[in-house]
Every structure is written in structure tokens, then in C-alpha cells.
Amino acid sequence: GENVEQHPSTLSVQEGDSAVIKCTYSDSASNYFPWYKQELGKRPQLIIDIRSNVGEKKDQRIAVTLNKTAKHFSLHITETQPEDSAVYFCAARGLSGGYNKLIFGAGTRLAVHP
Amino acid sequence: NAGVTQTPKFRVLKTGQSMTLLCAQDMNHEYMYWYRQDPGMGLRLIHYSVGEGTTAKGEVPDGYNVSRLKKQNFLLGLESAAPSQTSVYFCASSYSLTYNEQFFGPGTRLTVL
Questions:
Q1: Is A62 helix (H, G, I), strand (E, B) or coil?
Q2: CA-CA distances (angstroms) from residue B10 to A48, B16, B107, B112?
Q3: In terms of DSSP bridges, do strands B10-13 and B108-112 run parallel, antiparallel, or are they unpaired?
Q4: How confident is the model over B26-76, as pLDDT tens digits?
């Protein structure tokens, strides 16, 4: 079945450093890749997404890159701040049955130390 | 505009008891989803609905049932709760296939003793 692998599971950086989280997906038909941020005790919220016809997308300090050939995509956070500390989930839209189903990675716990 | 809401926020059940979790959205979204979140396992899809009156199985449907009698509501039922169903449950909704963003509810923390 469809699968999304996410690495690393935990990531610790100093404030101001960059953080990179990587995901690979199995369904070559996937065409939409969102990233969600979940702060402690809160709901997941979309922070950025990318569609398969685009190789890179930026929004201020965050960017996502997509390599369709290798079936992997990455989240890049530059100039990290303590408020970036959270769990980040990648996801790929599975097209099994044609429905809008997201398959999530297991998550990366990012800790940004002042 | 409340977005996606869930009731209850917390619940403790004994093994074998039943309960229903309610999800409501006021965004006129067609698609609704139920996920469970367990440590180290991300969000796993239990059941989903592509419109009023329709439901379909996700990755981990066993032990759960759902109903979507009204477009704005999606109910998740546990007929006979088991300790393995201890988890945080999130409901989500999205507008359509084209607009993919899923909006999540605040979650329900369920403990089965």
C-alpha cells in the first residue's frame, strides 16, 4: 500500500541554524505534498504545500523541494526560532480510488534551542 | 466561523463500553476524515467520507464505525472499546479534490482502561 517515510524522527538545532526534514513516498501517482506543524497539545496546521508540477516553493523562512524521479520531498527551515519547536508531519496525497486521502509520515520532533 | 469542532475533548472508557465522537464543520466541506494519532506513528486514517451519506475505510478501520447523515457532521463510533484504541482522535475536513488543505479539529483524547 501507500507509504510515506520521514526522517529524522527528532532534530535538535541552535536558534538561527537551518533545519531539514526529508520524506519519501511510495505511490508514484501522488501529486500533492503538504507539510503540517503540530505544537504541543494543539491540532496539526498546514504550513506549506507543493504540487507535483512544481520543484520548489518558498514562503518566508520555509521552503519545500520535490524530486518526483526519486520520490522524495524535503522541508527546509532557515534562521530557526524557538517558536519553530514543534512536531512536523509530511504527507502525500494517495490517489487510490481517486479520493483525497493523505498518507502521513511518522513526524519529526524539532527542538530549537536559544 | 468555528471551523472544525470535536466533542468531547476528553473521555475515559472501560473495556467493552461504547461511545460516539462527534465532528462538526461549518465550512461547507465535502470531505471529512477521522484520524488517530499515536506516539511515533503520525496520523493514521480510520475512515473518511466524500460527501453526505457516504463513508469509506481508511488504513486502520477495524473496531470503528462512522456515519455521515448530514454534510456538516461526521460521527465516529466505538462499539466495544479496547485498550488498543487509547489514542488521540482528530477529525479533519477539506473542500474538494482540487483544494486539498485539510483543516483539523482540536482532537479528542480517549483512554480505554
A1: strand
A2: 30, 18, 9, 11
A3: parallel
A4: 999 999 999 999 987 889 999 999 999 999 998 899 999 999 999 999 999
Q: Which residues are within 8 A (CB) of A58 and not within 5 positions of it... i.e. 6 or more apart?
A: none
Please check whether residue A80 is in contact with residue A15, taking contact to mean a CB–CB distance below 8 angstroms.
yes
Distance from CA of B38 to the nearest CA of A (A): 9
Q: Which residues are CB-neighbours of B13 under 8 A, at least 6 positions away?
A: B19, B78, B81, B110, B111, B112, B113
Report the residue of chain A nearest B50, measured CA to CA.
Answer: A99
Strands A108-113 and A10-14: parallel
Give the pLDDT confidence score for residue B95 in this predicted structure. Answer: 86
List the single best residue of B30, B36, B90, B102 to mutate versus A (max A Cβ within 10 A).
B102
Residues with Cβ within 8 Å of residue A43, at least 6 apart in sequence: B90, B104, B105, B106, B107
The one-letter amino acid code at A108 reads T
B10: part of which helix (H) or strand (E)?
Answer: strand B10-13
